[in-house]
């Protein structure tokens, strides 16, 4: 699985948190289901926004980017994002990008002008399939205005710059376009076709369309990616949470008021694909539900055990809840349904706690934690409660 990482020119905000938490949970559930997952994320440290911000602050672009990269890694770790196996910086993959751009020129999909190298979109008729945009709509979206391009929809693979953040290339000094960063990072790691590509829904067009075009034009093989997963937009009072609108809530600020598990629970009450609006009311409601779940779990763990085996009943109870949990999660990762299963399970555990033997209790607790850990909602808050003596879990 490859997920588009952040452009590191500022602190990350809750819009990013939503996306990275969703893919963390998805990875955890894939592992829970027995899959092995290799999860790769790029860090966009080479970008116009990085260059602009560095110029404003009179800083070295890569140095500045790497400070924000450190902050990003701190923030997502503090949030409880644990599943990314490898982060790769765009600046470390420049030779791979140059190789891909050269390959695209050689195959006739790209051309050089005085300003850079461009992908000729008309040579790749599938362009627009992922987003479902028509040719007419595509032609209306004139991104990257530049008079040297053959067609308005062509996108840059390489831009020529004599100065600033630039590397030597067969086309003179310059830096890569944004889209080539991702295929240059993902394809050498995963090959011509891989399973999952994730990112925020605003990246579908043109970013992911461009990735498909680059990859499939290069290899002649389709599909480049078997499943595309996109997280819905997070808005604040009806507008997208974005730095340019000045309505961002930084992850580190949110974590001063809410526990990581509370934020995670909150985002998981909405399907990852659905657009949603950030609200304190919603967050406080999530906190309440999570507190109740924790209270139930605590009272279950504190309840006295009794003699005699109830293993059969207990394992039936666990199996029933696990089946319901899987039913929701197998339905395109329906975390909101899965949360209600765990809430119901915790309620039942609190009710039955005093009627169970030690072994059954331990088994139920372990089963509960395994599912709760997929959703990342325990956050160590309850885990250290009452484990005196026997029945402790690894
Ligand atoms: Zn990307």
Structure write-up:
Helix content is 48%, strand content 12%. It has 13 helices and twelve strands. The strands form three sheets. A five-stranded parallel sheet has the order 3-2-1-8-9. Strands 4-5-6-7 form a four-stranded antiparallel sheet. A hairpin with a 3-residue loop joins strand 4 and strand 5. The site of zinc ion has 5 residues, from loops.
Features:
394 residues; 13 helices; four-stranded antiparallel sheet; five-stranded parallel sheet; alpha/beta
Write the layout of secondary structure elements.
Blueprint: E1 2-3, H1 14-32, E2 40-43, H2 48-57, H3 61-79, E3 86-89, H4 94-106, E4 110-112, E5 116-119, H5 135-140, E6 155-160, E7 174-176, H6 178-190, E8 194-200, H7 204-219, E9 225-231, E10 234-236, E11 239-240, H8 251-257, H9 260-268, E12 276-277, H10 280-302, H11 311-330, H12 335-352, H13 358-375
Parallel strand pairs: 1-2, 1-8, 2-3, 8-9, 10-12
Antiparallel strand pairs: 4-5, 5-6, 6-7, 10-11
Helix pairs in contact: 1-13, 2-3, 4-6, 6-7, 9-10, 10-12, 11-12, 11-13, 12-13
Bound molecules: zinc ion.
Residues 4, 182, 199, 203, 207 line the site of zinc ion.
């Amino acid at each position: 699985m490859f997920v588009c990482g952040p452009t590191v020119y500022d602190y990350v905000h809750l819009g990013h948190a939503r996306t990275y938490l969703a893919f963390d949970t998805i990875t955890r559930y894939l592992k829970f289901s027995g899959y092995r997952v290799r999860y790769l994320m790029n860090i966009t440290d080479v970008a116009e926004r990085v260059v602009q911000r560095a110029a404003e602050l009179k800083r070295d672009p890569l140095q500045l980017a790497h400070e924000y990269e450190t902050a990003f890694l701190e923030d997502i770790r503090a949030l409880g994002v644990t599943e990314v196996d490898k982060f790769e910086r765009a600046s470390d993959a420049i030779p791979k990008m140059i190789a891909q751009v050269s390959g695209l020129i050689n195959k006739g999909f790209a051309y050089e002008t005085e300003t850079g190298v461009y992908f000729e979109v008309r040579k790749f008729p599938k362009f627009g399939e992922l987003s479902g945009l028509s040719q007419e709509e595509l032609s209306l979206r004139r991104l990257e205005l530049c008079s040297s391009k053959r067609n308005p929809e062509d996108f840059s693979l390489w831009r020529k710059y004599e100065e600033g953040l630039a590397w030597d290339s067969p086309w003179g000094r310059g830096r890569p376009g944004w889209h080539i960063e991702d295929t240059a990072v993902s394809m050498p790691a995963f090959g011509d076709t891989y399973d999952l590509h994730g990112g925020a829904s605003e990246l579908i067009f043109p970013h992911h369309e461009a990735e498909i075009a680059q990859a499939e034009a290069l290899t002649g093989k389709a599909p480049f990616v078997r499943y595309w997963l996109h997280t819905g937009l997070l808005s604040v009072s009806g507008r997208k949470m974005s730095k340019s609108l000045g309505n961002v809530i930084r992850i580190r600020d949110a974590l001063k008021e809410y526990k990581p598990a509370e934020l995670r629970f909150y985002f998981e009450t909405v399907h990852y694909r659905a657009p949603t609006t950030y609200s304190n009311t919603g967050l406080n409601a999530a906190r309440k539900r999570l507190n109740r779940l924790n209270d139930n779990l605590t009272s279950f763990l504190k309840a006295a055990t009794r003699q005699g085996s109830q293993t059969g009943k207990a394992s039936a109870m666990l199996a029933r809840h696990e089946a319901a949990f899987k039913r929701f999660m197998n339905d395109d990762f329906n975390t909101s349904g899965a949360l209600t299963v765990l809430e119901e399970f915790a309620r039942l555990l609190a009710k039955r706690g005093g009627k169970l033997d030690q072994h059954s209790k331990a088994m139920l607790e372990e089963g509960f934690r395994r599912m709760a850990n997929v959703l990342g909602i325990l956050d160590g808050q309850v885990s250290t409660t009452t484990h005196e003596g026997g029945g402790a879990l690894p």
